[in-house]
Design brief:
The protein has about 140 residues and is of the alpha+beta class. The protein contains five helices and eight strands, in the order αβββαββαββααβ. The strands form two sheets. Strands 6-7-1-2-8 form a five-stranded mixed beta sheet. A three-stranded antiparallel beta sheet has the order 3-4-5. The longest helix is centred in the N-terminal third of the chain and has 34 residues. About 20% of the residues are buried. Bound molecules: zinc ion.
Length: about 140
């Protein structure tokens, strides 16, 4: 009888500990989701510099000529909250094959031209949001 009630008490303890762990995990999940917030930005990493583009400011299909900005023979096509690489002179066109980048942390890489386009939320960008040159104004 005494053993049984002791077992029940420890069961309750285990349940409480599990609940506490679940709560901590849930809170962590909420905080993590909160950190991936803010506008989506396209970031272009090239041997000649790093550039950023605010995809939330894109109203309709528009383009940025990367050749005139950083000597990369490619065009960035942007639509509201997404972008893709087009008109590249590389032999394989794998970078174009990535298609539309529209979710945070999606990337398109062009090995021959040594550049990467990725999209990130403001919070994921961290210091790159201030270090990369803003080319949002160059959209046309
Ligand atoms: Zn390519």
């Amino acid at each position: 009888m005494e053993n049984r009630s002791f077992a029940k008490k420890s069961d309750i303890k285990i349940i409480l500990v599990m609940l506490a762990v679940a709560l901590v995990l849930f809170a962590g999940l909420l905080i993590h989701q909160g950190s991936a917030s803010g506008n989506l930005w396209a970031v272009v990493d090239t041997p000649n510099g790093q550039y950023r583009l605010d995809l939330s400011k894109v109203q309709s299909t528009s383009h940025i000529d990367l050749n005139s900005i950083c000597g990369i023979p490619a065009t960035l096509e942007a639509e509201p909250n997404r972008c893709r690489v087009i008109n590249v002179d590389c032999p394989d066109h794998i970078c174009e094959g990535f298609g539309w980048l529209e979710a945070s942390r999606q990337t398109a890489t062009c090995m021959p031209n040594r550049f990467v386009v990725g999209i990130y939320t403001e919070s994921e960008l961290g210091t790159r949001l201030t270090n990369a040159a803003d080319i949002t104004e160059k959209l046309e």
